[in-house]
Amino acid sequence: MKRRRFFQTLMVAPAAPALLAQQAAAPPGPANRPPAEDSKIETVAADLAGEPVLHFFNAQQFAALKRLSGILLPPINGSPGALDTGAAEFLDFLMGESPADRHQIYRLGLDALNAQARKLHGKLFAEVDAGQADALLAPLRQPWQYDPPADPLAHFLITAKQDVRTATMNSREWNSAGAGSGGRRMGGTGLYWNVL
Amino acid sequence: MAAKDYDVLIIGSGASGGMAAYTLTKKGVKCLMLDAGPLVDFNRDRVLKPVYELPYRGFGKPGRLTHVLQANEFNANQWVDETQVPYTHDPKEPFNWVRVRMIGGKSLFWARMSFRLSDYEFKAKDHDGFGENWPISHDDLAPFYSRVEPIFRVSGRKEGYPQLPDGNFIEDNSPDSAAVKRFSAAANERGIPVTKMRRSLGQGQFASSFNLLLPDAMATGNLTIVPNAVVRDITVDKNTGLANGANLVDRHSRRELHVKARVVMVGASCLESTRILLNSGIANSSGVLGHYLHDQFYISQSVQAVMPEARGGAAGRGFGGGGYIPRFRNLKTKEKNFLRGYALDFSMGGTPDAKYYPLYGEALQKAMDADRGAGFSCTTMGEVLPRFENHVSIDKNVTDAWGIPALHIQCKYGENEFNMAKEAIATMEELCHACGWEVLTRHDKMFPPGYSIHEVGTCRMGDNPKTSVLNKWNQSHDIKNLFVVDGSSFVTGGSQNPTMTILSLSMRASEYAAEQMRAGNV
Q1: Distance from the B140 Cα atom to the nearest Cα atom in chain A, whole angstroms
Q2: Chain B residues closer than 8 Å to A192 by CB
Q3: Would you say residue A4 has pLDDT above 50?
Q4: Does the residue A85 lie in any domain?
Q5: What percent of chain B has a predicted confidence (pLDDT) above 90?
Q6: Which of A44, A92, A164, A170 to probe by mutation at the B interface, max B CB count within 10 Å?
């Protein structure tokens, strides 16, 4: 019924006077409504209707990434944190789409993080306490260098620090909370170019 | 048949092609302009979107536009798709060929930094013995710079620097902030000049051939523009040896067509023009076509610092602004480790990126909040020496989406550039310390060649037909009715953005061509 009304509306739209003139008689049915009332069809984005299906990381890697993301960017001053915005879930999707060199950074780094946690504390990174986790993230307290570190764990942590921030601050939840910085790349709005 | 002969065929609609059309049509010359891209409707082809609605949350589609570091997920479609128009290079020696195909070309998106070259560039060989001089001097080009600058509404502060000639400016008399004054004082004490950025204000949202040149050319009734026309090659009359038109492929239908003209002016951008000439097999009796590729090396955010007194919300009270340091090395003194020089542009008032802090979580956020608006950063732009071995050629094994052979680019920086970069960063760090600012980080790692989008030199001009492709009028030594009017004609590039020089050369060459046509010489 809605579909039928939609096409009826199109037929009386000002953009189609020639077509209207060709009609021999008005079709039977309810009276036409003004276009403004009828032409609104609301949709929602898929990520508002469904849950992410994870493909890229194995269970241990994903658990470590999720824990890490919550530490890297917790909720601060009313802004949602990485866990609230599904940053780890988004990164699982992004890594699945990424070239092999990015796969290596994440997989080797997360495996190294879990291996370190197991070696020092007999647990996976997702299970260590806050103090233990902080100690494992020591490479993030080193001064920034242009060239990525040779150590896979340090390389991964530096990469993840940036990626988790971007995934969080460019999320719908961050924007809805009014936490957007206004920047085009961080939670803001920009001019998107259609395919030319 | 609608097809007809035109006086001049112009290939490309950016700064150089647009200026050729602007100049020639006003002299009554009938021009046909071809561009490989569409005419963009900026209201229809761009839409406002929040970043969370983009498929990749602003990260961009992984693996797309790997050479275009300027691209983001919003503007990805404005750049040439590398899968559609590929090029090749040694994997160990990347070249970032950044391209735009649409009416107006790259002039729609440039950073608008608007400088003249000086005789330190035009007569560089006289100064330090390296390479070749241009066949022209600043005096030859000055009248054209002076006419171009008002069209683009260049603002700046007149300084009288010999290495950065003043222009026909809209005077920028805005006061410097306290932070800029402090930085300038520290620089001046060391003999380093600091001035206002020189920038094209343009009109409305653009400073482009799209809005400043092509509308005037169209208004003459002498310009016909064909969008989506991908030029395969330039054709030559076998009897006369003169260029007589070009073969093109329609971007959408891939239908092949030939257009005819009395004179051909190529302004498709440095490397695209060179590719067209190489694919045409013309204008290369010298053997230097495609050689001497150079640009400017760029190191962005080469020094990141924080102004301590601007911390904690004090920023904004005199801590904003920025400026430009023109080349100051190797003018009256001689550096031990490198020839030529570099320029720097700096800005204050931003907030350093999170990656520069050795922190995370709440501690990171607190530090960034405290430093909001207290940041200092600079970009280094260094002159690259033109070398024969840095060159492009045709890769016969790779073609683009229209079956046109692709370009192979072989280009790398050398010791001169690396030494210059090290010295530039050390100097900038010293200035920050002298101002009492805390240097968060510094690095001297250049982007790959091509990043600056200032590639020049592959059809260089000169008086000697054995060592140059063009004469001093941007006219082919081999084919007198063929002109190349873009940055490929440069002999040296200096450290200045090349756009004002490209525009001025194109205006000068176009006036010369019109006169030669009137006199019946071409």
Answers
A1: 41
A2: 46-49, 54, 74
A3: no
A4: yes
A5: 97
A6: A170
Is B356 within a domain? yes
Query: Average pLDDT of chain B?
Result: 96
Residue of A193, A194, A195 for testing the chain B interface, max B β-carbons within 10 Å: A193
pLDDT of the residue at B178: 92
A144:B52 CB<8 A: no
User: According to the model, what pLDDT value does residue B266 have?
Assistant: 98
Q: B17-44 pLDDT, tens per residue?
A: 999 999 999 999 999 999 999 999 999 9
List residues bridging with B344 in a β-sheet.
B325, B380
Domain coverage including residue A99: 60-176
Of residues B376, B475, B369, B468, the one with CA closest to residue B431: B376
Q: Give yes or no for residue A5 having a pLDDT over 50.
A: no
pLDDT in tens, A118-138: 999 999 999 999 999 999 999
- pLDDT of B216 > 50? The answer is yes
Domain tally for chain A? Answer: 1
- In angstroms, what separates the C-alpha of B440 from chain A's closest C-alpha? 8
Return the H-helix or E-strand segment holding B144: helix B138-152
Instruction: Judge whether B439 is closer than 8 Å to chain A, CB to CB.
Output: no
ipTM of the complex: 0.91
Interchain contact, B74 vs A172, CB within 8 Å: no
What is the SS3 assignment for B225? Answer: strand
- A55-59: list long-range contacts, CB under 8 Å, 24+ apart: A55/A92, A55/A93, A55/A96, A56/A92, A56/A93, A56/A95, A56/A96, A56/A103, A57/A92, A57/A95, A57/A106, A57/A107, A57/A110
Contacts of residue B104, defined as CB under 8 A and 6 or more positions apart, other chains included, come to: B13, B14, B18, B40, B206, B208, B209, B210, B211, B214
The nearest alpha carbon in chain B to A73 belongs to B361
| pLDDT at position A12 over 60 | no
Which residues on chain B are in Cβ contact (under 8 Å) with A194? 44-47, 77
- In a domain? residue A31: no
Looking at residue A47, its pLDDT comes to 86
Instruction: Give B426→chain A minimum CA distance, Å.
Output: 16
How many C-beta neighbours within 10 Å does residue B199 have?
22
CB distance B117 to B501 below 8 Å: yes
Provide the domain limits for residue B438.
5-42+90-518
Say if A158 falls within a structural domain: yes
CB B267 within 8 A of CB B16: yes
B476, amino acid identity: S
B39 and chain A: CB distance < 8 Å anywhere?
A: no
Please say whether the beta carbons of B435 and B182 come within 8 A. Answer: yes
CB of B306 within 8 Å of any CB in chain A?
Answer: no
The answer to whether residue A142 sits within a structural domain is yes
Q: How far is B294 from chain A (nearest CA, A)?
A: 25
Residue of B nearest to A72 (CA): B361
Please give, rounded to a whole number of angstroms, the shortest distance from the CA of A140 to a CA of chain B: 6
Q: How confident is the model at residue A6 (pLDDT cuts 50, 70, 90)?
A: very low
Bridge-based pairing of strands B31-34 and B223-226 is parallel
Domain count for chain B = 1
Domain for residue B82, yes or no?
Answer: no
Out of B54, B76, B361, name the one closest to residue A72 (CB). Answer: B361
Averaged pLDDT, B58-68? 94
- Look up residue B294 and give its DSSP letter: B
- Kindly state the tokens that stand for B494: 């200096």
Helices and strands (DSSP H and E) totals, chain B? 11, 19
Q: What is the arithmetic mean of pLDDT over B282-311?
A: 96
Confirm whether B59 is domain-assigned.
no
C-alpha span between B259 and B4 (Å, rounded): 8
Give the mean pLDDT of B268-289. 98
Q: Residue B314's domain is classified under what CATH number?
A: 3.50.50.60
Cα–Cα dist A125/A5, whole Å: 57
pTM: 0.92
